[in-house]
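Folding Task

Wanted — backbone structure
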Amino acid sequence: MIDFTWLIGGEAGFGIMTTGVVFSKTATRSGYHIFDYVEYPSLIRGGHNAYEVHVSESNISHLNSAIDVLVCLNKETYEKHKGRLNDKSLVVFDQDEFEITDDVKKIIIPFKKILSNLKGQPIMKNTIALGASIGLLGGDVDELIRIISEQFAKKGEAVINFNKQFVQAGYDEVKKNYSTLVINYLNKSSSAKGTADEAKLVLTGNDAFALGSVIADCRLYSAYPMTPSSTVLTDLAAWQEKIGMVTRHAEDEISVINTAIGASFAGVRSAVGTSGGGFALMVESISFAGVTEIPLVIFLSQRPGPATGMPTWTEQGDLLFAVFSGHGEFPKIVLAPGDNEEMIELTAKAYNLADQYQLPVIVMSDMYLSESHKSVSKKFVDDFITSYKVNRGKLINDNSKVKIQNSKLQVKSQNFLRYKITEDGISERLVPGTPGYFYQANSYEHIEDGHTTEEAQPRIDQVDKRARKWKTYLSNDFSMPKVYGDLEKSEIVFVSWGSTKGIVLQAQKLLTNKKIDSAFIHFNYIYPLDKDKIVDLFKQDKKYILIENNSWGQFGKLLTMETGFEFKEKFLKYDGRPITAEEIIKKISNIKSQITNKS
């Protein structure tokens, strides 16, 4: 089966990001699945950028440890990534710029000479490298040129033709001098032809959240740009005229969330997006949404903290912060998609849950999921759009459903019991301005019509009413974690949440190749948890291994709090880099030895 990794690296400002996306699209249109990942420092200019693309015949959302084709636009790229090469790897570089003395398979492309001959700027090296890469991998250069043409369509025919010649030059250089080293990975092999004609979308996790929001009929998205959530704002801003959505780049995160709460109060589906530092500014208003029972979707894309931390790297360090965000006790729901398909599904679900239960719903991501591209079947998206149903819950937006008492001379207004005590904890919600009715909504504790109170019994009644939402949710909408593999048969059981899904699934495959059975419990409905059902998953005599991209094992702590179960084995990574399947295998090798010795 064809499965390989291509990586290009160079100095920031040399089009590394654009080049990586074009390569991903080329591989996808050749019939393959892709998952890519970008590394870049939080610098305005300079620093090392790297973009790697994992290409496979199967659906993937993980990285490989080995690099099959390394494209070095500077020496730093080789020095940083040579530890991931093997004896079959190909290294593309310009010998006139730097030397490689190691014993590796060298593909020498004269970038400087080609640039001089074609009167190109140094930034055009990436375009030459693309052509050379497609040549090395047996790809279709015409497909690459079509994608380049789409990429520069707005800049005119002259710019397109200028770029074409650099693509062709790189491609021709390989065909002329390295035809014996060509590996036909991107040739539409017989095994890949089954998916070659299947339309795929190349989406980041942020693209998937934006798409899920559109499917769910979100009408206002407000954000202050903060890596790695920022591109949701740019996506939706670009689409807003076509989809009838307002996108607002507010002055800070306090304004962001209050804008969204106001829009939701007025009756439209609303969302905000941010990362940890911005989320910290939002927590008072999250509490406000809790007491006023105003629906709100919050997209929280994590990066390493504390404080500014490492803005362009990845971590799952904000889970407990999200779960306990906002002062006081009030219900909220936390979801964490594991891949782009789940991001689309759970984002759309989040809007329904926010409306149905009239509370904040937090959708959690991280840099690894948010900024990585993954190929997603267009049929999957089309089918989901067809099947998705908007559920506004107990929203009265039809005046015929309320008894309106008015006349030409006088409007007789009456209190609307916005916070009426109900068995399921959910009260009817009326869009403000409905003729003949009024209610209050402010930050104070209140009685049923919204008027403030500091009396004991109304306080108890409202706290208990809000808390009953969780019971209703757990009965009707909570989903148990998915179990991959045979839980009964396996002695090793992985437990993780969110974006580590694809990584752990790959670790399971590697273990299967070693004839080791494993199971995997993956959570994406994070909070609240149905502890009575979940605890049954942890009652067996197994080696449970917690996998998290943080240093505290935060989800493990949450499970302990909810179920009493404590993990003895953990693999925690918190250097800003994503976990790899090979690291997990290395971690558990000694555990397997213990199991063997015990038996």
Notes: Confidence is low (pLDDT under 50) at residues 404-411.
